Amino acid sequence: xxxxxxxxxxxxxxxxxxxxxxxxARVFRDAGMEVIYTGLHQTPEEIVRxxxxxxxxxxxxxxxSGAHLSVCRQVLDGLRAAGAGDMTVILGGTVLPEExxxxxxxxxxxxxxxxxxxxxxxxFLTSRYSEAT
Length: 133
Description:
By secondary structure, the protein is of the alpha/beta class.
C-alpha cells in the first residue's frame, strides 16, 4: 500500500468509556496510520455513513457495553448495503472468547479482547495491508 492506512475509530451505542479507544487511536496514528475518531454514542448507521464518507480502509470498533454482536452485524450489513463491504472491520473491547468465532463468521476481520497487546491492531493491519500490495 503506497499510502497511509485510513482507520475510522468508532464507539457505538451507550458505551460512554472512550479512554481505550483514544489510546488505540494514538497507537495507530503513531504507527503512521490516518485516524478519524467519531466520538461517543454513534449509531451503526452513523458509523457506516462516516466510513463511506471518509473512504476509510478500516472500521475499528471499540465496545465495552456487551452489544458488540448486534452492532457488528448492523455495521457489516450497512457497509455491504452501501457498497463498501470490502472495508476491514476490527473489534476491540470486552469480548468473551466464545464470541470470537461468531464475530468472525459475521465478517469481523480480527477481534482484540482484554489482555491483547497494545500494538496487536497495528501488527494485524500492517500485515494485512502489506499483503495487499
